[in-house]
Amino acid sequence: MTTFTWQGRKPGGEASRGEIEAENAGAAAAVLQANGTIVVSLTEKPAATASAHVSLWPSLGNAPIKDEDVLIFSRQMHTLQRAGVPILRALSSLQASAAKPSLGAMLADLRANLEQGHELGTAMKRHTDAFNGFYIAMVRVGEMSGRLTEVFDRLAKHIEFELDVRSRIKQALRYPTMVLVAIAIAMLVINLFVIPTFATVFAQFKAELPPVTRLLMAISKFTVDAWPLLLAGGVGTWWGLRAWLATAPGRLMWDGFKLKLPIAGPIVLKGTLSRFARSFAIASRSGVPISRAMSVVAQTVDNAYIAQRIEQMREGVERGESVSRCAAAAGIFTPVVLQMIAVGEETGDLDSLMIEVADMYERETDYAIKGLAASIEPLLLTVIGAMVLVLALGIFLPLWNLGGAAQGRGGG
Q: With contact defined as beta carbons under 8 Å apart, do 337 and 280 qualify?
């Protein structure tokens, strides 16, 4: 998309000017003429000037804008648009009632850009921390098709579903996370304080210790002696992994690995595919071409591996292949879903069938999330049991042997 600066006149003769984004000058002129503007001049804005206009709204408030804020904004815009309130007046009302300074500053910036002649989707591109690519693309579609009210309603439902899935996953993982943290703290305390104390007792008796006890004592001694090195290594490894995951190859490999995890992998896959199917259906119902819809949706699935497969589907569709064949080649859909996609393509009702696919994956994801804690509990019990067994064999067994030997000598 290219940014053009234009000057023109309204039907009443009033002079107007502004900026507009379009594929080319002809498309920009067509949009302006469709809005009733008589174009006097139309010039392309230099790329450097366009990119130098950076929003400073994040610095105006301490609290960042979250997905919950975008959800409320979408619902409010849907309600105001349905009531016939103009966009500028709606943004002004929301700005006056904004609870966060950062949100109010963002709404003020959106309103200022609209007053300068920009489109709402173009203004939202300045705030990518709040609006992702899918949101902006859907708003642009709503503006072009005149269905912005409906688009805001669909976006609100989409964000609400995303937040609900995240909340349920966090709730299911809360107990296992607490148990794992408790285990890690217990292991640290045992290695730093408990085992060294027993090592002093064993050294006084000068008795031969079992291999498990000697292993535990060696690990404890290494932990006590080298804890600064271990801490530095742990921090360095953490930052190294973060830097690696920030790269495209690292993110791709990690996202592919997550899908292969024994318990969490199927949940991640189903949740991601549900997000893809619903986003694709929303874009398709709003009039976005299939190839363009796939390109936009690929940026919002939050999984580089799945996004790569969706891009491969888009390339196949652009070559003239059917959606069902491209979906089968992607290797991420089940046979049932592939059959539903094929039926939807044949009947010309692909968006409705994708909604069915999204609903099916949502039900499976919900069922899997509900059983997530129950699936992890046996694994946690196994880990805790193994820890207790090792500690019993490594620490308490030598104590029992030493106690028995002491009693034998006392009896003799």
A: no
Going from the C-alpha of 19 to that of each of 9, 38, 54, 144, the distances in angstroms are: 14, 14, 16, 16
Crossing angle between the packed helical segments 148-189 and 133-145, to the nearest 10 degrees: 170
**Bridge partners (DSSP) listed for residue 15:** 9
Residue 56: exposed, middle, or buried by beta-carbon count in 10 A (0-12, 13-18, 19+)? exposed
Encode pLDDT of 292-323 as tens digits: 888 877 876 778 898 899 889 989 988 988 88
pTM above 0.85, yes or no: no
* CA angle, 256 then 257 then 262, to 5°: 125
Q: In the predicted model, what is the mean pLDDT of residues 270-283?
A: 81
Q: How far is residue 13's CA from residue 1's CA, in Å, rounded to a whole number?
A: 29
Options 3.90.1150.10, 1.20.81.30, 3.30.300.20, 1.10.10.10; CATH of 267-370: 1.20.81.30
- Assign residue 300 a region (left: φ > 0; alpha: ψ between -120 and 50; beta: otherwise): alpha
Determine the angle formed by the axes of helices 148-189 and 372-391, rounding to 10 degrees.
10
DSSP 3-state of 358: helix
**Contact by Cβ (8 Å): 151, 157:** no
Is it true that 57-159 and 267-370 share their CATH fold?
yes
Residues near 317 by Cβ (< 8 Å), separated by ≥ 6? 290, 291, 294, 323, 326
CB burial of 321-348 (b: ≥16 within 10 Å; e: otherwise) equals eebbbbbbebebbeeebbebbbebbeee
